Amino acid sequence: METRRVRLDLNWRVERLADSPSLPESTVYSYSMNDVQVFAGHGRRRHGFRCSRPIRFLRSMWLATCCAVAGFWSAGCGVVPQAANPNDGGVNSDNEAKPFTFQISVARHIDQPLSEQRVNRIFSTANELLLADDNECSDVSCPVTFDRDGAIETFDNSPAIVTTEAQLDAVFDDSADIKIVTLMVGVCGSPSADDVSLVLGCAFTGGSAVLVQDAPADVWAHEWGHVQGLPHRNNCGRNLMHAFELETNAVNATERDAFLSPTPGQNFLAFKTIFEEQHSASVAPEFDGEMVSAPVEDIFNRRYLAGFPSTLFTRHNLQMQSRELLDRMQTDPSPRCRANLARAIGLSRDVAACETFLTSCGSIAGDLNIDELDELIEQIIALGRLADVDTTNQTTELLLAGADPAFWTHRDLTLVLDDGRRIDLDDSLARICVMGLGLTKNPTVPERLRELKRIALTRNESDPWFIPQIDEALERIAGTGKYAADAKTDRIP
Ligand SMILES: [Zn+2]
To answer: Where on the phi/psi map is residue 70: left (φ > 0), alpha (ψ -120 to 50), or beta?
Structure first.
């Protein structure tokens, strides 16, 4: 059994003291209490063990004692040692991969339907795609089994459409391994305006994952890879851990071993380091300034893990074509394609787009399906990005008007889910308009947001998440709090 010396210090952030994922025996780690809590997870079940959300301090102290006394870092804490359980994946080599099973509990937002049959199908598909060998990218077979643990529970401590990190905190507080919400907008540690998007999944390393209701099986597996400590790997388009591609399945031997291991183990630290490096880079490393042309259909008809990536925008030099993209957005029959185009045009910051978005957001009404709602949200986010180039200030004024739920009420905007269930959108859209205001560099906006907050405080706000949304928008503009340059996040889409 490998051993790791671990030092626990109450005031340290996680600091990885070696660069290679294959760490020497003498590596010393330091952890803050927060990081230990992260590793303790959210009641995740492995081999019958469950950490049942005790008081954080007690959990931390328990874990600290466990790590310090047992000294078996690679086997992790809170699970039985490898030798005691034949189903443990343990150490694998290229020629030897012992099957491993995760018992995964699933919970859904109370307003978001999700059948056990659907979860079973997703797990079955995820198992198959990990077991398969892919020909396009270097891939190894990974005999992991995701197995649903018990009935699907419900939670109601956040909105079904998640629009702030505080709401996402509340969802992560639920004890299930995987939580399902309707949508996530602009959350999961998006530090810059370019990164703000609709995300399909969000993982808390060493803890649990949150997924949107229609996330495909490879996104479930991808987020579980992050839970197991894996970073993104973008050198091939079908890599399961690709930062934005979907329809993926390829894993390398290191990733396979993480999926066949009961704990995140040493990869937990690799993840944190690489994630921080990625967020400090302006362009994803695989692009390297290379300019590529591709048919617009190939780029915009697809779905991405966290919205149409700003890196693709750079790579395909789409700024040159923003008028063409605008024409296409007004005529394309697919709301999915129009949503991607809206996002790209917002990133282009072409003032010519303002009028189109203003007309569209100002006139939309009635029932929406999920793709149409995605499109509307991308338009609101695009307006936020465009608000400072629009010298008429109409864009800012529309976002301020939309920050009042009454703006949407008389339009009867309702999300209609596949099973016919209806979700009222007034409060969510008002909050997304506040988020849009938080993305703009228009210098008048912070004072307008503070005024909005003062008004909200004087009336009895029906939406308890409205004022926190304003606070997050102000933090984003000021680059403070969780949006500070040196802020740490343990979450990744
Ligand atoms: Zn990811």
So the answer is: alpha
Same domain (yes/no): 262, 175: yes
Are 105 and 253 in a shared domain? yes
Distance (angstroms) between ligand 1 centre and the Cα of 450 equals 34
Q: pLDDT averaged over consecutive 10-residue blocks of the chain (493 residues)? A: 29 28 31 32 34 32 37 30 33 70 97 96 98 91 97 97 96 97 93 85 93 97 94 93 95 93 61 48 48 80 92 80 89 94 91 92 93 96 95 96 94 91 95 97 95 92 93 94 84 92
C-alpha to C-alpha distances, 441 to 268, 349, 390, nearest whole angstrom: 36, 12, 11
Reduce the DSSP state of residue 28 to 3 states and report it. Answer: strand
CB under 8 A, 24+ apart: contacts of 94-98: 94/140, 94/253, 97/140, 97/141, 97/142, 97/143, 97/256, 97/257, 97/260, 98/143, 98/260
Ligand 1 mean position to 164 CA, how many Å?
19
Between the CA of 482 and the centroid of ligand 1 the distance, in Å, is: 19
In this structure, are 276 and 414 located in the same domain?
Answer: no
Structure pTM? 0.80
Do 368 and 480 share a structural domain?
Answer: yes
Q: Are residues 258 and 139 in the same domain?
A: yes
Q: How far is the CA of 1 from the centre of ligand 1 (A)?
A: 30
CA of 79 to the centre of ligand 1 (A): 26
Is there a contact between 171 and 287 (Cβ–Cβ < 8 Å)?
Answer: no
CA 236 to centroid of ligand 1, rounded, Å: 14
82 within some domain: no
Range of the domain at 245: 90-280
